């Protein structure tokens, strides 16, 4: 082949390539589904190529994820309360209460009190007096597994 023939073949190939490229752009511009499918395919192929890091190994400011979460949790304020017992009474009986009235509770004398954190039972204990202040000595702590089971 001569030099002119090779050049004309190359020019023709370039023209075809440009025409096909233009046609591909027009098809995707006219057909939004084709463009969306192409975009999705590109996203899936790039996601497949990326190797995910293990979630438990991710770090924030040089700390493992579990330590970061624990630091955030440790500063959250909670309400702790002790419950001697409960009872249900009608509004009529409630309005009749006065100084010296006795309200019967559902607990027996000497039975342990409930220790609640944000209204969730975490332990049982007994009342103690330390330096003229009431306190509670924990006698039975509910396991974390049991507390989580009760949340569900």
Topology:
Layout: H1 3-30, H2 32-49, E1 59-60, E2 63-64, H3 65-74, E3 80-83, H4 91-95, E4 113-117, E5 120-130, E6 133-141, H5 144-151
Antiparallel strand pairs: 1-2, 3-4, 4-5, 5-6
Kindly provide the name of the CATH class of the largest domain: Mainly Beta
* End-to-end C-alpha gap: 81 Å
Computed structural class: alpha+beta
Give the strand line-up of the largest sheet: 3-4-5-6
The major β-sheet equals: 4 strands, antiparallel
What does this structure look like?
Helix 1 packs across helix 2 (32-49). This protein has 152 residues and is an alpha+beta fold. 45% of the residues lie in helices and 22% in strands. The radius of gyration is 37 Å and the shape is rod-shaped. The protein has 2 domains: 3-50; 79-151, Surface presentation of antigens (SPOA) (Roll). The mean pLDDT is 76. The strands form 2 sheets. It has a 4-stranded antiparallel sheet, with no helix packed on it. Strands 1-2 form a two-stranded antiparallel ribbon. The chain has 5 helices and 6 strands; from the N terminus they run H-H-E-E-H-E-H-E-E-E-H.
Task: Briefly characterize the structure.
With about 150 residues, the chain is of the alpha+beta class. The chain contains 5 helices and 6 strands. The strands form 2 sheets. The protein has a 4-stranded antiparallel beta sheet, with no helix packed on it. It has a two-stranded antiparallel sheet with strand order 1-2.
